[in-house]
Amino acid sequence: MGAIFSLVAAGVTIVYGCVWLPNASNGQFFLIAALLAWTLTSSMGWGSLAASIAVIALGVLLAIALEWLLIRRLYDAPHRNMAYFVMTLGITQIMSGVFSLTYAKWSDQFSLPPIVSGITMIGPMPIPNNRLLVMAVSLVVLGLLFTLLRYHPYGRALRAVFQNREAAALRGVNVKGIYKLSFVLGTAIIFLGGLLFALAYSFDLTVAWTMSITAFAIMIIGGPGSVLGALVVGMVFGFTQAIVSIFASPTAATFSYLGAMLIMLLFRPNGLFKR
Amino acid sequence: MTNRNKLAVLVVTLCALALPFLTNDNRFLAFVVGMTFINVLWATGMNLMYGFVGLIPLMFAGIAGIAAYAMVYFTRTLEWSFWLAMPVATLLAAIVGVALGLPALRLKGFYFALCSLVIQSVLTLAFIFFPTFTNGDTGINQILPPDWFGGQLSLSSLEIVIAILAVSGVLLCAWLVRTDLGKRFIAVREDDILAESIGIKVVRTKIIGFFIVSVYAGVGGCFYAAYTGFISPRTFDVLVSLNIWLFVAFGGRGTILGPIIGTAILAPLPYLLQDIQAFKEIISGTLIIVVALAMPAGIYGAYLAARSRKPNRSMEARMQEQRV
């Protein structure tokens, strides 16, 4: 759970840190990925692995289409984070309308066949191998992402844009190209998060909204634009969710995130892992 | 205010007050008109915050919800009169709203919007998880219309009351933005650092604005509950806040007439298009995107811009002719 939280928050944080695009519809993207995977496996009889690859490909295509259709039009607008926030809330509304017209009529609980079966005992806790695999994949992807941002020329350009757009542009960085790349990359990562979530847990349509808010909370607490922050805070959130859910209720966990986020916004709007 | 404007205000007011009478024969139309008036009141409040102070309060519906639930609690459990419960509930909601919003009001722009979204989510959750006051997810139904000297106000009289309220809400807003306070609001919207430097207490101004907005939300919420007779957490969730925001942005933020136009066009839509109810979210989502992308000033704002541009254009045209 923590690993998936981290992953989605990393996707959101890259897009916000770089493009200044607070993607309020990240939860819906997350859900689309999960639902598409469900459609491909349950209705069309694909294997989980093939479905996963197809879903990621579709996610990239969707991101490119969205970028071309909507996102790029506001790259130069002043206060564009506000405009984007509202716009993505619009996207959220459209998607939830579409979902309630389609998937909500078919089922109210969705789950995917696992990729691997079997159970491993870690200490006293039995954990399905499938979830272990999901966790491993998310950690590997997070690691790759981290390396990419740190060492690859694209990652360096992206971090340069995080820090100072004008200076990056002066140094010959194609700022808009970076915007585009990071939107696509961020969206693909969110898709991957949704996919992994669908593989590990059964889900319903309300997960979208929870995920949106949680990802924002992680991003704010971790610091916008910081993958490390997303990783650490996401993990903490995942564990607290598990623990609080056992001892209290999932709602109490949600309340506590939101509280943490509000406190963070008040006292350190730049987050714990400010770059 | 010029004489022409005064006349326009008078005509619009009279038309607004006449609407409930005109539609009285057709209950359905009358209901649509009543709902539109409540939404006009809400949109005017939202406009005060979004259009003049420059912040998007996405917890708007939540505050309306607090007032509505409090009103129901006062009238049902404590058996107060609606006319006592309504102001007390509104005041309570406004105080809670300011207390919740107080920390957030130090933030600006996007961070405020995000914070208010979080507060709205917390409020929605609270409505669901404190069933003693709210009856949880099922909501409260059969809320009685306001009492009136022993009897009960009939729905058609309630519509007239709501129309009067909406009109006075708009007039109050129009008056308010002309006062010094309104000018401070606009200064904060335009440039809060500059505003601070010329001695405006930015946070205090925002708090005052937010209190007034919460009162609008609360009054609207109380009348919504009394008028429709049913409230649930869904009635006051974030989509409702967004919808009210859309009325304002679509009509034209920061103008008095804009939000009214936006509401008059958009608010009746879901009732008139009942057969395709499920498309409502899709339609409003699309409109939000269109507004964000193409019409930041809204339709009335675009009209104003076109009107003020026209004389210049004809001047240019004339100059060109002379040159030719």
Describe the structure.
The complex is a heterodimer of chains A (275) and B (324). Chain A has helices at residues 2-19, 26-43, 48-69, 80-101, 103-106, 129-151, 153-163, 165-170, 175-200, 207-222, 227-247, 250-267, and strands at 119-122, 125-128. With 275 residues, chain A is mainly α. The longest helix of chain A is centred in the C-terminal third of the chain and has 26 residues, at 175-200. The model of chain A has no long low-confidence stretch (mean pLDDT 75). Chain B has one domain: ABC transporter involved in vitamin B12 uptake, BtuC (Orthogonal Bundle), CATH 1.10.3470. Chain B is 76% helix and 1% strand. Chain B has 15 helices and 2 strands. A two-stranded antiparallel ribbon of chain B has the order 1-2. In chain B, a hairpin with a 2-residue loop joins strand 1 (147-148) and strand 2 (151-152).
Task: Explain the layout of strands and helices.
The complex is a heterodimer of chains A (275) and B (324).
Chain A: H1 2-19, H2 26-43, H3 48-69, H4 80-101, H5 103-106, E1 119-122, E2 125-128, H6 129-151, H7 153-163, H8 165-170, H9 175-200, H10 207-222, H11 227-247, H12 250-267
Antiparallel strand pairs in A: 1-2
Helix pairs in contact in A: 1-6, 1-9, 1-10, 1-11, 2-3, 2-9, 2-10, 3-9, 6-7, 6-9, 7-9, 10-11, 10-12, 11-12
Chain B: H1 3-22, H2 27-53, H3 60-76, H4 82-104, H5 109-129, H6 131-134, E1 147-148, E2 151-152, H7 155-176, H8 180-190, H9 192-197, H10 202-228, H11 238-251, H12 257-266, H13 269-272, H14 280-294, H15 298-323
Antiparallel strand pairs in B: 1-2
Helix pairs in contact in B: 1-7, 2-7, 2-10, 2-11, 2-12, 3-4, 3-5, 3-10, 4-10, 8-10, 11-12, 11-14, 11-15, 12-15
Short structural summary:
The complex is a heterodimer of chains A (275) and B (324). Chain A has 275 residues and is mainly α.
The proportion of residues in beta strands of chain A is under 5%
CATH class annotation of chain B: Mainly Alpha
What is the count of structural domains of chain A?
1
- Stretches of chain B where pLDDT is under 50 for at least 5 consecutive residues are none
Largest sheet of chain B: 2 strands, antiparallel
Number of domains of chain B: 1
Radius of gyration of chain B: 21 Å
Count of alpha/pi helices of chain B: 15
Specify the structural class of chain A: mainly alpha
H-E string of chain A: HHHHHEEHHHHHHH
